[in-house]
Amino acid sequence: MTAGLDAQDRPVVVVTGIGVLTSLGEGVADNWRSLVAGKSGLRRISRFPLEGLRTTVAGTVDFVPLPAFSTPALSQEIAARAMAEAVGMAGLGAPGAFPGPLFLALPPVELEWPQRRALAAASGAVGPIGYADLLRAAGDGAFGGTYARFLFASVAEALAERFGTTGVPIEVSTACASGATAIQLGVEAIRRGETEAAVCVGTDASVNVEALVRFSLLSALSTRNDPPQGAARPFSKDRDGFVMAEGAGALVLESLAHALARGAEILGVVEGCGERADSFHRTRSAPDGKPIIECLRRAIADAGLVPEEIGYVNAHGTGTPENDKMEWNCLAAVFGARAGSVPVSSNKSMIGHTLSAAGVVEAVFTLLSLRHGILPPTINYEVPDPAVPIDCVPNVARPADVAHALSNSFGFGGQNVALVIGREPR
User: Fold this and answer.
1) How far is CA 278 from its chain centroid?
2) What residues are labeled active site?
């Protein structure tokens, strides 16, 4: 809950525009159609050589053309596309003049192997290449474009300039909770009265060879490569890791009063936000799950609800053995005896794990689930896990009348954020 504001006094925060791009395709309509059909967007990686790699599949968005690939360049392009769809749907402001701030979730921006090799070749260096080398090269008149591209703020500044958002754009990188963190920041800004509207964006195009190798060294990735569509299998006993994916999502948030005053269509409500970091380990969450449990309870309480009023959970559901069991145990602690009857599905079974973008992408899908009365399935659920007796909406979408849902995002380093999405204002 926002400091200094009682629940009855703070503005209600509604959604008036959404946009999304994932491995399933571009735009809300195409993504939703494929999602409820149980279609997978996972495919064999074609962006770089795969020899010697244990994992060869990902949810890439190679249908978005770029002159030259880099993670920040593609992250920016897909974010711009999702943002354009959301802002256009909201009909708020004029082209190039959005009347609110930008909150952007994105992966850490760092020099990638191709750029390091180019710098090494130009300088004749034989040791490690880093930002000091880039600064020297840019200062000498070369590599200016590389320097501009690999500044951490480059993506947010470009998007803010294109869409004319107000103030300094805020970038966040809280691992796989980043997207939900961006939404929480937008909600809190509106609740505090700092703005009547905000655009919250999550984007990630991290399928490069270096990132794939890093996650492989952590034994975090699925090695089920054939067929690619069967690699991601959250909650199934034979799950063996997550599948990296790319994507972007965007939400236009407004205070309810502002949206009603201009006659905007209200798509849903961000009713509550909860967060709790545990700092237990660089990659693992605390084994007792207490930080996640507290995160979920905070989100529900912030929404002014009780657990019995939550009718659906869009799970973090990565498909790693530890994460899925942890998430189930935490849901069981929050929902008690009814935990096994609460539908809990994972979009990642179809789109893969969009990492920094996941919190926004999955908030979009949660909102669509409530609006359309359909819960997307968890596909590839073939072998039930006795340790995870969850209703994961297995393999086939399900009609459901749900008023309030949780959308969970849990990241490395114990970064935990949960959102409560409502179908309509109360």
Assistant:
1) 20
2) 176, 316, 353
List, for residues 344-399, the tens digit of each pLDDT value: 999 999 999 999 999 999 999 999 999 999 999 999 999 999 999 999 999 999 99
Residues 6+ apart with CB under 8 A from 322: 284
What would the 3-class secondary structure string for 69-120 be?
CCHHHHHHHHHHHHHHHHHHHHCCCECCECCCCEEEECCCCCCCHHHHHHHH
Kindly list the structural domains of the chain, giving each domain's residue range(s) and its CATH number in brackets, ordered by start. Answer: 13-109+151-421 (3.40.47.10), 115-149 (no CATH)
Peptide bond into 67 cis (omega under 30): no
User: If pLDDT is split at 50, 70 and 90, which confidence band does 212 have?
Assistant: very high
The string of pLDDT tens digits covering residues 110-144 is 878 788 888 888 877 767 777 787 777 787 777 88
Dihedral-angle region of residue 190 (phi above 0 means left; psi in -120 to 50 means alpha; beta otherwise): alpha
